[in-house]
Amino acid sequence: MSAVLEKPIDPPGPLREFWQGFTANRGAFIALIVFALIALASLFAPLLAPHDPIEQYRDFMLTPPVWAEGGSTRFLLGTDELGRDMLSRLLHGGRVSLGIGLAAVVMSLVPGVLLGLLAAFFQRWLSPAIMRVMDIVLALPALLLAICVITILGPGLVNTVIAIAIGALPGYVRLTRAAALGEINRDYVTASRVAGASVWRLMFITVLPNCMAPLIVNATLSFSSAILETAGLGFLGLGVQAPTPEWGTMLSAARDYITRAPWVVTLPGLTILVTVLAINLMGDGLRDALDPKLKKVA
């Protein structure tokens, strides 16, 4: 009987292995679907929103949602205290809240990675100066620091992004520095240095790609924190200004009607809750998929 030669099974590629590790966490996979739906709905808000988010219908002020008594099919989620459609404002508010969160993450991630790499590669003279400044910023609560920055710069969309990014910067610097220090003395870095690679090539081509896993996870979690801080600043009246729809601003304007018209507070609050929860669960899934120490051994 001739032996049957079995074709060896090729190991899965990095992307497939990552996807298998991520989808193994059912909570993270469901959270990804929920967040994708929220992001797509916000992105296509001009097409999906049934009304202009700032248009006021004076005859329909504080109209309940369609399933409640007194609701109208014209306004599926009801209207606010000025007669503006809640569904339209939630959709357009998602564009603002998610946009601010994404912009704040990028604005803090890029300089944070650069400063972290500089602190790791120039440990004698540059690292102490960078890390002491980051320690000072880190000593202040993020929301309090954001309030101070906005007090100086003034409220507004761009200033809100800057304020949130400054508060998130130390986390990226410290994380990048720690990850880079763990890679600098490895053999592949030493080989690149012996081969004549410049410091900048070592930083961005050799070391940085191997530090991206914790940075991606931290950026995901910082995204949810930025959304919460945006809502907090909007609730305090220091973030995005009316009549621009934003979830925190909607909460601030509706707090006086919490007993008379609870939907004007409940709907923005639930939207923030579901979005932040989905992002946090996605962050847990990314951590499990990207960190080799957390992967289950078959």
From TrEMBL:
GO cellular component, one term: plasma membrane
Pfam families: BPD_transp_1 (PF00528), OppC_N (PF12911)
Membrane-topology annotation of the record: Multi-pass membrane protein
InterPro entries hit by this protein: BP-dependent_transpt_permease (IPR050366), MetI-like (IPR000515), MetI-like_sf (IPR035906), OppC_N (IPR025966)
Record carries keyword Cell membrane: yes
Lineage: Bacteria, Pseudomonadati, Pseudomonadota, Betaproteobacteria, Burkholderiales
TM stretches of this protein: 28-49, 96-122, 142-173, 223-240, 261-282
Keyword Cell membrane: yes
Primary residence: membrane
Protein name as catalogued: Dipeptide ABC transporter permease DppC
Gene Ontology terms for molecular function: dipeptide transmembrane transporter activity
